[in-house]
Write a structure and sequence with these properties.
Layout: E1 8-12, H1 16-26, E2 30-37, H2 40-46, E3 53-60, E4 63-70, E5 89-93, H3 97-102, E6 109-110, E7 115-116, E8 122-127, E9 133-138
Parallel strand pairs: 1-4, 5-9
Antiparallel strand pairs: 2-3, 3-4, 6-8, 7-8, 8-9
Length: 139
């Protein structure tokens, strides 16, 4: 078997434009690709009948952040909590956590101010416009 390497982290969103604005403008990630996919092979591959989706890939260093919006999405739900089984989050590293936190637009929902944990990592969490958790950290 070939060895696996990380390619992307995917987040399904209901408002692709708003999500791109957040990750591009508030967090400074560059858009590297935008495309749409549909058809039988895609629908079969994702296990959703008649699926069609729009994608935006953003450069997050060694991995891409993939934002995807399906033409027909499920009901929205309250934002996830980090301690709930099955909840995911995106971790983005920066050199200066405090400067990043201080530079966030007022519209960004913050979960916590920068904190240095017992491991020596400085972190803070925000929510994207869909309620997904994003951890900003300096290892």
């Amino acid at each position: 078997m070939d060895s696996l390497t990380a390619h992307h982290v995917g987040i399904t969103v209901s408002d692709l434009d708003q999500a791109v604005e957040f990750y591009r403008d508030a967090l400074g990630l560059d858009v590297v690709a935008e495309f749409s996919v549909g058809g039988e092979a895609f629908a079969t591959g994702v296990g959703v009948p008649d699926a069609r989706a729009s994608f935006v890939h953003l450069d997050a260093g060694d991995v891409r952040l993939e934002l995807v919006s399906y033409d027909a999405t499920g009901d929205s739900q309250a934002g996830p909590q980090i301690d709930t089984a099955g909840v995911t989050h995106v971790g983005l590293a920066v050199d200066d956590v405090a400067a990043c936190y201080g530079g966030l637009p007022d519209s960004v929902e913050t979960v916590s101010e920068p904190q240095t944990t017992e491991s020596g990592t400085t972190i803070f969490f925000v929510r994207d416009p869909e309620g997904n958790l994003v951890e900003v950290l300096s290892p």
